[in-house]
Write a structure and sequence with these properties.
cytoplasm; EC 4.3.1.3; histidine ammonia-lyase activity; Phe/His_NH3-lyase_AS; Fumarase/histidase_N; single chain; mainly alpha; about 5% strand
Length: about 500
């Protein structure tokens, strides 16, 4: 059981919640804070104070006063009108993350919701009832209004949910599970949707997948080193300590560990004086992506524990303040940065694939073919990798550099952070397929040279991977091989013990 208090949620806890089915609950401290902030909202309504979103309309309608008897209808109308999301649905994993992050934000006690509403949200998380939330429609400022409205709809008993792999009307699912819907009261609709939890949820899942893939990228690159008789001198600690980047030093150390004992790698001057950049500069290139992952994790961890709705209620100080914590700019930048860094990881992988299949760049059979000329071998695999890399270059265009004013120019600058997060996730999926192709080609190369000569670490990967994609002894439908390898690599995100790459020393 993981307790939510709005302050101590970590990436490791989120991983347990998302992939290990860990249940969540509120901390005793957060319960007290939630109750205290709710009392202040009830006083504001009772005394008829003019406070944004509680006794006024929203956005450009902030100057429209709402009477006490209409505050509940105001909140319901807000959710109904804002549930405008379009496009494919977010995955259940991302939706679960969204629900947990929203609950954690409300648990900080700055939002003024009733404890019963927060408990209802947690009940849905623990019973694995997931709102159907369309991916498109958020500007990433004023919060992720459209996506979070679809989440809020379900609390009201409206909309649709996914439950045990089945898409159901919410009221049908609630009846089946004896769940009672919530009737929203003052401030609660606004508190549910004024936040960055959609972009942050996508960001959290994207980060977790990227971090796993990053580890795999090093091991796959190490096998490519063996397939191309790469020169180990480039990983000498003296080289990397001379520059000083900790991440670069760490990548070089892991590459040495992965390749320790290999009879397939070479030394400077043995076969050639130096390697091409995509081999020689693995620590520098991969290390730079590692720096980005550290930055992204830091920003996501802050945002996971942030109060991002508006207005915020500071009960101890007796203040209700309208601000802009819903603005997604910090996450927008982080997601754009993640997309760029991961896209570059694929760029370097595709160039290594080219070196594996191009007979002008190695002494292996052309395109790793079993019968060159009669059979094409891995020729089109490189085409596919090139296409994925090219697609990533368009997806990596920063979403955060755009802004379109909304709400009659009241909301005149927005982050587009949710678009950036979605693009980053798409990039990561493409990167994984590129590395699946590099893995297939590298495994073929070392298989040709003699797998028994591999390092113990890389050979363990080779042995396990051969159960996924067998040696290429003739042309076949390689699409199936690529997808099988991709799925195998992806499985490590949820089940670290299932794929050897997460058990490698020093990773």
């Amino acid at each position: 059981m993981i307790h939510l208090d709005g302050n101590t949620l970590t990436m490791e806890k989120m991983k347990a919640i998302l992939f290990s089915g860990e249940k969540v609950a509120l901390s005793e401290e957060s319960i007290a804070k939630v109750k205290q902030s709710r009392l202040m909202v009830e006083r504001i309504v009772a005394e008829g104070e003019i406070v944004y979103g509680i006794t006024t309309g929203f956005g450009k309608f902030s100057d429209v006063r709402i009477e006490a008897e209409d505050v509940a209808a105001l909140q319901k109308n807000l959710i109904l009108s804002h549930a405008c999301g379009v496009g494919p649905l977010f995955s259940e994993t991302i939706t679960r993350a969204m629900m947990v992050l929203r609950a954690n934000a409300l648990a900080k006690g700055f939002s003024g919701v009733r404890l019963s509403l927060l408990e209802k949200l947690i009940e849905l998380v623990n019973k694995e009832v997931y709102p159907c939330v369309p991916q498109q429609g958020s500007l990433g400022a004023s919060g992720d209004l459209a996506p979070l409205s679809h989440l809020a709809l379900v609390l009201m008993g409206e909309g649709e949910v996914m439950y045990q792999g089945e898409k159901l009307e919410t009221k049908v699912c609630f009846a089946r599970l004896s769940i009672a819907p919530i009737v929203l009261e003052a401030k609660e609709g606004l508190a549910l949707i004024n936040g960055t939890q959609a972009m942050t949820a996508v960001g959290v899942v994207a980060y977790l997948e990227a971090a796993c893939l990053f580890k795999q990228s090093e091991l796959i690159a190490a096998i490519t080193m063996e397939g191309l008789h790469g020169i180990m001198d480039a990983f000498d600690p003296l080289v990397h300590e001379a520059r000083g980047y900790p991440e670069q030093i760490a990548v070089a150390a892991r590459m040495r560990a992965h390749l320790e004992g290999s009879k397939l790698v070479s030394v400077q001057g043995e076969k050639r004086v130096q390697d091409a950049y995509t081999l020689r500069c693995i620590p520098q290139i991969h290390g730079a992506t590692a720096q980005t992952l550290t930055y992204v994790k830091d920003k996501l961890t802050i945002e996971m524990n942030a109060a991002t709705d508006n207005p915020l209620i500071f009960a101890d100080e007796g203040k209700v303040i309208s601000g802009g914590n819903f603005h997604g700019q910090p996450i927008a930048f982080a997601m754009d940065y993640l997309a760029i860094a991961m896209a570059e990881l694929a760029n370097v992988s595709e160039r290594r694939i080219e070196r594996l299949v191009n007979p002008q760049l190695n002494d292996l059979p052309p395109f790793l073919s079993a019968a060159p000329g009669l059979q094409s071998g891995a020729m089109i695999m490189q085409y596919v990798a090139a296409a994925l890399v090219s697609e990533n270059k368009t997806l990596a265009h920063p979403a955060s550099v755009d802004s379109i004013p909304s709400s009659a120019n009241q909301e005149d600058h927005v982050s587009m952070g949710t678009i950036g997060a979605r693009h980053a996730y798409q990039v990561i999926e493409n990167v994984r397929r590129v590395y699946a192709i590099e893995a297939i080609c590298a495994l073929q190369a070392v298989g040709i040279r003699g797998a028994h000569k591999m390092a113990p670490v890389t050979h363990a990967f080779y042995t396990a991977a051969r159960h996924v994609v067998p040696f290429i002894d003739g042309d076949r439908v390689f699409s199936k091989d690529i997808e099988a390898m991709t799925a195998w690599l992806h499985a490590a995100v949820q089940e670290p013990g299932k794929v050897m790459t997460n058990e490698v020393r020093g990773s």
